[in-house]
Amino acid sequence: MHFTKLHGAGNDYIYVNGFEETVADPAALARRVSDRHFGVGADGLILVLPPERDGDVRMRMFNADGSESEMCGNGVRCLAKFAVDRGLVKAAGDAVRVETLAGMREVRLHRDGAGRIVKGSVCMGRPRLAPADIPVRARGDRVVDVPLKGVGRLPQGVARPLRMTCVSMGNPHAVFYVDSAADWPLATLGPRIENHKLFPRRVNVHIVQVVSPQEVVARTWERGSGITLACGTGASAVCVAGVLTGRTGRRILAHVPGGDLGLEWPDDEAEVRLTGPVAEVFSGEWPA
């Protein structure tokens, strides 16, 4: 089986051309290829498939633990680059419509002076804020700066109580604001929050340090993959949470461990737009 590894701001995935290859058990394959010691090493597996509706291409995404996820902002940008570079789609003006479990996403690709695709922008859809839509077991119309209990003993130095803002970008996110993103014990508390009983489909966890109304530092514990260098849907949720809590404006630059992502949420009824880098790492053959 031929594969290609790409990454968006360090959020790396193994891509398989489903126009030519058949994967019988993508969940099992995702677990094997994602292993950073015994596999290729990645945050997950993405299948690039023929469209079923009116898109140019279809995406199925599997986390490193084999669970299937609805969408990934970094992954879908890289998928668009993969599809155009290999001639799987003929994008009009480098705009690619991608079918995902979270709905249709249009990716606009940007080229450098040599004509190489190096960046992508994608409309991530409208955020969903009702608890049932996220989903999170909570009362009220929205979950904004709400205390989170039941995560066990908090490590020394962690501010009490944990306060979360919850957003769905087609998949569930919980955003926490802290004084120092670098020092917060994400490896300890990330899995506890991901699997908290309030989240029936688990949750992606984001730790955010506000630098200014236009700039944040963020780290992610990604549902099914653990700590990742970037999360596109998560960065989008961070942009929305900043507006909801009054901490940041509608256009921000998010510094994540793998690079920088630009976000914009023009108004409450608009889609969030994400812009960030895309890069191919290498290709290879995986034994059947």
Could you walk me through the main structural features you see in this protein, from its secondary elements to its overall organization?
- It is a single chain.
- The chain has 288 residues and is α+β, with helices and mostly antiparallel strands.
- The chain has two domains: 126 residues, Diaminopimelate Epimerase, Chain A, domain 1 (Roll); 145 residues, Roll (Diaminopimelate Epimerase, Chain A, domain 1).
- Helix content is 16%, strand content 39%.
- The chain has an 18-stranded mixed beta sheet that branches.
- A hairpin with a 2-residue loop joins strand 15 and strand 16.
Helix-strand layout with pairing:
Blueprint lengths: L1 E7 L2 E7 L8 H9 L9 E6 L7 E7 L4 E2 L3 H13 L9 E6 L2 E9 L5 E7 L22 E3 L13 E7 L3 E6 L8 H9 L9 E9 L2 E8 L3 E3 L3 H14 L5 E6 L2 E6 L8 E5 L1 E7 L3
Parallel strand pairs: 2-3, 4-6, 11-12, 13-15
Antiparallel strand pairs: 1-2, 1-18, 3-4, 4-5, 6-7, 7-8, 8-17, 9-10, 10-11, 12-13, 13-14, 15-16, 16-17
